[in-house]
Amino acid sequence: MTIAGGIILIMLGAIFTWAVEFDLAGFDINILGVILMLGGLVWLLIAIYRMNVARRAIAPTTVVVEEDPVTHRRVYEERRYDDPPVV
Q1: CA–CA separation, 81 vs 61, rounded Å?
Q2: Cβ atoms 11, 39 nearer than 8 A
Q3: 84 to each of 26, 81, 87, how far by Cα in Å?
Q4: Band of residue 77 on the pLDDT scale cut at 50, 70, 90
Q5: What pLDDT is stored for residue 35 in this prediction?
Q6: How far apart are CA 74 and CA 65, in angstroms?
Q7: For residue range 13-70, what is the model confidence (pLDDT) as tens digits?
């Protein structure tokens, strides 16, 4: 619930800021709405940043480099997606 949590906080803050008329001595519901919207915006930005960092990480893949036809032994090598191809 990374991006959804931020969006929910922003929506809840918008409702408190512009749609709710509630008066309580010493408490302003509009300020609470603005605080919730700012918190939701920060949450949303952090969630997007974390998703982009997680997508950049590339897991190594295992490829067969050579195979001995007599013993049928295979030599494996770990490679990354962006490494040049084996020739």
Answers
A1: 7
A2: no
A3: 65, 8, 9
A4: low
A5: 96
A6: 8
A7: 999 999 988 888 888 899 999 999 999 999 999 999 988 887 766 655 655 566 677 7
| Phi and psi torsions of 53, nearest 5° | -65, -40
Please name the residues in contact with 34: beta carbons below 8 A apart, sequence gap of 6 or more: 13, 17
Is residue 43 within 8 Å of 12, Cβ to Cβ? no
Whether the Cβ atoms of residue 58 and residue 81 lie closer than 8 Å to each other = yes
Contact call for residues 37 and 45 (beta carbons, < 8 A): no
**How would you write the chain as a 3-class SS string?**
CCHHHHHHHHHHHHHHHHCCCCEECCEEHHHHHHHHHHHHHHHHHHHHHHHHHHHHCCCCEEEEEEECCCCCCEEEEEECCCCCCCC
Identify residue 57 by its one-letter amino acid code.
A
Which of 46, 38, 36 lies closest to 15 in space, CA to CA? 36
